[in-house]
Amino acid sequence: MPADLSGTWTLLSSDNFEGYMLALGIDFATRKIAKLLKPQKVIEQNEDSFTIHTNSSLRNYFVKFKIGEEFEEDNKGLDNRKCKSLVIWDNDRLTCVQKGEKKNRGWTHWIEGDKLHLETSGRARWLTSVIPAF
Fold first, then answer.
1. 87-122 pLDDT tens trace
2. 8 exposed, middle or buried (CB, 10 Å; 0-12, 13-18, 19+)?
3. Are 61 and 41 in contact (CB under 8 A)?
4. Cα dist. 14→30, 66, 92 in Å?
5. Which domains occur in the chain, in start order?
6. What Gene Ontology molecular-function terms does this entry list (predicted)?
7. C-beta of residue 47 within 8 angstroms of C-beta of residue 54
8. Among the listed residues 94, 119, 131, the one whose alpha carbon sits nearest the alpha carbon of residue 8
């Protein structure tokens, strides 16, 4: 049975966030502001259907998807690109592969203890975040 990622999570730490944003082409001013934020992520999981809200004082982002079904994702508020996304379970890890303008892009969520981990990729730049339960 896959993990239940439902909950409210607030960013604790991240590694290489600036490099990741740079690889995605995010402008200088936005990168500097975004590094200071502690976004909150709300995950609602109902069997294979997910709704994820990522909220911060700079921007909010919302995505809704079903496991195994490719969908059009509009990254407005992030890097403002559109891509085709496919989310699957890889054991207890929720993994998304994104196809579009930027190659090698995607993310993986998993839980260790009481912390939600997020690893994102974009043009061989990686970001790892640790997000404790709220």
1. 999 999 999 999 987 677 888 999 988 889 988 876
2. middle
3. no
4. 16, 27, 21
5. 7-132 (2.40.128.20)
6. lipid binding
7. no
8. 131
